[in-house]
Every structure is written in C-alpha cells, then in structure tokens.
Amino acid sequence: MAVAEKKYHIGLAREDVGDYVLVPGDPFRTPLIAKFIDGAKEVAFSREYRTFTGTVDGEKVSTMSTGMGGPSVAIGIEELHELGVHTLLRVGTCGAAQPEIKMGDLVISMAAVRSEGTPNGYVPLEYPAVASLHVVEALIEAAEAAGARYHVGVTRSVDALYSDLLPDTMPRPHLRDELDMWAKAGILSNDMEASTLFVVSRIRQMRAGCVNLCVDELGAGEIHHVDPSYMDRMLSVSVDAIRRLIKRDVRRA
Prior knowledge:
single chain; Rossmann fold; 253 residues; alpha/beta; globular
C-alpha cells in the first residue's frame, strides 16, 4: 500500500491531522495544548510546524504551530487546506492597545487591521480580514463558561514587532503618532498573525478565529512572561471553543 505523501513544509499527510486545528505560533505551545486533547500524540515536527493530534468528544483534532508572522502562517494554512482541514483557531499572544486590557486578559478578534504584508500577495488592502462568526461565538461562550476576563473587538497585525514596542528608537518618524491613531480608532491589541489567518482562510473557504493572551500592557515597552495559569486558562478556553464548534457542526449535519 502506498504511503500518503506528506506536505513539504508542515510534514503532514491527511491521516495525520483532524478537520479542526488549533494554531499557536510557538512550537513549544503545541504540547501544552495537547494536554487538553484526548490521547494527543506528536505526529510531526517540521521547521516551525509542530503537530499533535488526538480527539475532542470523539472528533479528530490537531494543534499545529505556525511560527511567527504572516509568511509562515500563510504556508501552514495553504497546506492544511490541501489536506482538507476546515476550521482553524489561532491561540496566541498580543500587546494591549487599550488601557483596560491587562496582563492575562483574553482578546477575541472579530477582525484585524492589515498592517502587515503577506495578504497583499493574495488580494488588495480593500479586502477585509474578518474572523468566522461561528468561531467568535464559540470563543465568547467558552470564555464566559470559564469565567475568564476577555475583550472582543479588532486586532491590528504587524510585521515589525519592535517598532510597536519601542517606536521612539526607530529611524522611521511618527511611529508613536501612528500607534496613538490606531488606539483612538478603537483597536484592542496588536499581534503578528491574525490578519493573514483571516484573509487566507476566507479565500480558501475555511473557518478561522483568533484568541490572544495579553502579555504586554499599553505603554510597557516590553513583553512579559505571564503566570502559567493564564496560559493554561486560554488553552482550556480554546479547546472548549473547538468542542462547541464540533457540537454545533454535529447538530447541523
């Protein structure tokens, strides 16, 4: 019997991955997520893409890291799409753009500002980066059930992390004014992946959502290591959101 060919970058074949995939950036976050997935085992570790697969309520579910930034996210999404995956949930970190968002809070993205470049290779800037309504609803329900502090709104995705963290040290002028402008526009947080995830997934007709853990309060100028319990809570909320999506899909099948 022929062995199914594995995708070039992510190192996965169809039988290795579920239809629902949680996608953190950090390869060392996937084993943490795997603890919340029944019987999860590592099935691949290729480049920045590390994957564990198990089950949630009897449905095959995976978690695959994507690395940092839009280009590696887009490659991962494309190859997961080719394998038949239909639902993606980013489980990441972010910096706050509003004073009420504190360390350890969850930020659930309805949409994202495209301040990074990868989606421009797909469609013009006029095309919006929007999350799946079903995934947003599942995340809100899961956060409510867990009693977690959360915020729902628009994230801004960027390429240059340190331009946001230390704008006054950069050669480019007016960076701080630009950050203030986005804050006044109501942006909740900044990350590096959400807009690419939303654009590429929607173009490929996949559901996608994003929940980020705040690790950088407004004006802090540095990223902090948060209490591990905050990370565990986000991962638990994320897997519960996937569980709710599975139940929704079964009811509508």
